[in-house]
């Protein structure tokens, strides 16, 4: 078996391997190639710094890295790791990182990061063995809004207008939710300011209308009741939604999401390895 980067592979070959590796996983994986094109573009994937294990030319395991600056570090964010069933137990992920880390360091990467489902104990043990440590608890939500009450006004705006308001919140966002993830793939997002019935600006939202995936949503100020007003506005344009990787330290926000009718269906850890 041999390790190489993934720059020479067709996306279809990578996705085929991934679907085999993730069959029966905690969350079903989409098979549509257009989904993965958009997903990897938003994740800033660099296939020259993503790696696979090849057995007689066949891809049997992989690490797919997005590369970008985050929190002052050039970071390689592992947006997907998998090994097909026939090749598990061979420490392939260890070998991939052993090969990858010197190459990433040579390109200026100073930190590796990833997210892993809390119940995936086997994967967590592998990452800890490689040198990752748990940094954050993350929560994922989905479902239909169930909100009544005050009427709201919602106005579609350009992302540049959102950026003038969201700098203080970037620290809370995961790899897939920061401004860079939106800016690199603008066609799939829409952005909104939300006002109350007094025409006061309460907050904002950036989402993918086709999927109901909310990437950024915030209120201004500390009045928690404004969350429900904000959610009611979003309910008009996206009655069914999902939000991934909400920082578990945001207790008030999480409480308001649960109050609004959404389900906390998956929890994850963010894990970090300095290199």
Task: Note the topology.
Blueprint: E1 2-5, H1 11-21, H2 33-42, E2 51-55, E3 58-70, E4 73-83, H3 92-106, E5 111-117, H4 121-130, E6 133-144, E7 153-157, H5 159-163, H6 179-183, E8 190-195, E9 201-208, E10 213-219, H7 225-237, E11 240-247, H8 251-259, E12 263-274
Parallel strand pairs: 4-5, 10-11
Antiparallel strand pairs: 1-2, 2-3, 3-4, 5-12, 6-11, 6-12, 7-8, 8-9, 9-10
Report on the architecture of this protein:
With 275 residues, the chain is an alpha+beta fold. The chain has two domains: 2-131, 3-Layer(aba) Sandwich (Aminopeptidase), CATH 3.40.630.30; 141-267, 3-Layer(aba) Sandwich (Aminopeptidase). The protein has eight helices and twelve strands. Strands 1-2-3-4-5-12-6-11-10-9-8-7 form a twelve-stranded mixed sheet. Strand 2 (51-55) and strand 3 form a beta hairpin. The chain is elongated.
Summary, kept brief:
Helices cover 28% and strands 36% of the residues. It is built from 8 helices and 12 strands.
What brief labels describe this structure?
single chain, 275 residues, alpha+beta, Aminopeptidase, twelve-stranded mixed beta sheet, elongated
CATH superfamily of the largest domain: Gcn5-related N-acetyltransferase (GNAT)
Just name the CATH architecture of the largest domain: 3-Layer(aba) Sandwich
Care to count the β-strands? 12
- Whole-number tally of structural domains: 2
In which range does the helix fraction lie? 25-40%
Q: Mean pLDDT score, rounded?
A: 95
């Amino acid at each position: 078996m041999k390790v190489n980067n993934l720059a020479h592979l067709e996306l279809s070959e990578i996705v085929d391997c991934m679907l085999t590796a993730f069959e029966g996983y905690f969350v079903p994986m989409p098979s549509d190639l257009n989904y993965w094109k958009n997903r990897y573009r938003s994740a800033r994937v660099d296939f020259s710094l993503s790696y696979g294990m090849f057995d007689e030319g066949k891809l049997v395991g992989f690490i797919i890295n997005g590369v970008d600056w985050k929190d002052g570090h050039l970071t390689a964010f592992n947006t997907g790791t998998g090994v097909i069933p026939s090749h598990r137990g061979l420490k392939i992920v260890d070998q991939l990182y052993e090969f990858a880390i010197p190459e990433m360091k040579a390109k200026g990467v100073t930190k590796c990061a990833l997210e892993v489902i809390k119940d995936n104990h086997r994967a967590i043990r592998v990452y800890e063995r490689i040198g990752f440590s748990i940094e954050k608890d993350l929560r994922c939500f989905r479902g239909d809004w169930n909100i009544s009450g005050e009427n709201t006004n919602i106005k579609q705006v350009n992302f540049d207008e959102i950026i003038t308001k969201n700098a203080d919140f970037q620290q809370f966002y995961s790899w897939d939710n920061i401004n860079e993830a939106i800016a690199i793939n603008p066609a799939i997002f829409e952005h909104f300011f939300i006002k109350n019935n007094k025409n006061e600006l309460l907050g904002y939202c950036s989402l993918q209308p086709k999927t109901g995936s909310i990437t950024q949503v915030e209120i201004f100020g500390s009045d928690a009741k404004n969350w429900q007003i904000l959610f009611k506005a979003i309910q008009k344009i996206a009655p069914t939604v999902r939000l991934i990787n909400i920082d578990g330290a945001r207790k008030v926000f999480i409480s308001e999401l649960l109050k609004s009718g959404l389900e906390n269906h998956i929890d994850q850890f963010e894990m970090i390895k300095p290199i």
